[in-house]
Design a protein that fits this description.
globular, disordered N terminus, OxRdtase_Mopterin-bd_sf, binds the ligand Nc1nc2c(c(=O)[nH]1)N[C@H]1C(S)=C(S)[C@@H](COP(=O)(O)O)O[C@H]1N2, Sulfite Oxidase, Chain A, domain 2, 37% strand, binds molybdenum atom, mainly beta, 165 residues, five-stranded antiparallel beta sheet, 3 helices, 11 strands, six-stranded mixed beta sheet
Length: 165
């Protein structure tokens, strides 16, 4: 991941890069620009998006593996949850184990998202329902929640923003 990770002192310095997002774990924060990822550090996988309405779409997505993100911030073994937040405040929080086969994607079927969609980055994973596959990512957090915490309190999934169609 050399050349991809910027020092977390001022993640806002990357605000202008549409393909950048901030990743946080404990007190640590780093900014990652997905567009600068070398081919060797990205993966391409097929994922099916399953909406609660019954709609399904399958495509080939290219992005940064979630497992690489864990290394970027040196995620502690106690990490329990993976939280993803979009520009518009949409946010999801899932057990980190469910996100491990996932990617932060910047390309769909060989096309840059930022050229074909109103967003540049989105989350995909194999076993996570469609409503949690956040579009327009601006921040990812690795959380260590106590056993009695309610992960739903870390989510805002009520909107279905037509801006992101
Ligand atoms: N930021 C954001 N991400 C979102 C949504 C949204 O409203 N805002 N809708 C979700 C829902 S309900 C579904 S089913 C999928 C749809 O993804 P698609 O448009 O690529 O099929 O995106 C999810 N991600
Ligand atoms: Mo949906």
């Amino acid at each position: 991941m050399d050349g991809v990770v910027f020092d977390g002192d001022d993640p806002n310095e990357l605000r202008d890069a549409p393909t950048s997002f901030v990743i946080g774990s404990g007190g640590e924060r780093r900014a990652v620009d997905a567009a600068t990822c070398a081919d060797g550090s990205t993966i391409t996988c097929e994922y099916t998006i399953r909406c609660a309405t019954g709609e399904r779409t399958t495509a080939s997505w290219t992005g940064i593996p979630v497992t690489d993100l864990l290394n970027i911030v040196d995620a502690p073994a106690e990490t329990t949850h993976f939280r993803v937040e979009s520009d518009d405040g949409y946010a999801i929080c899932v057990p980190v184990a469910d996100a491990l086969d996932g990617v932060i994607a910047f390309e769909r079927d060989g096309e840059q998202l930022r050229e074909t969609r109103p967003y540049a980055l989105r989350f995909l994973a194999g076993d996570i329902d469609g409503e949690r596959l956040v579009k327009g990512i601006h921040r990812v957090d690795l959380l260590s929640l106590p056993a009695d915490a309610d992960p739903d309190r870390y989510e805002t999934v009520t909107l279905d923003n037509p801006e992101y169609e």
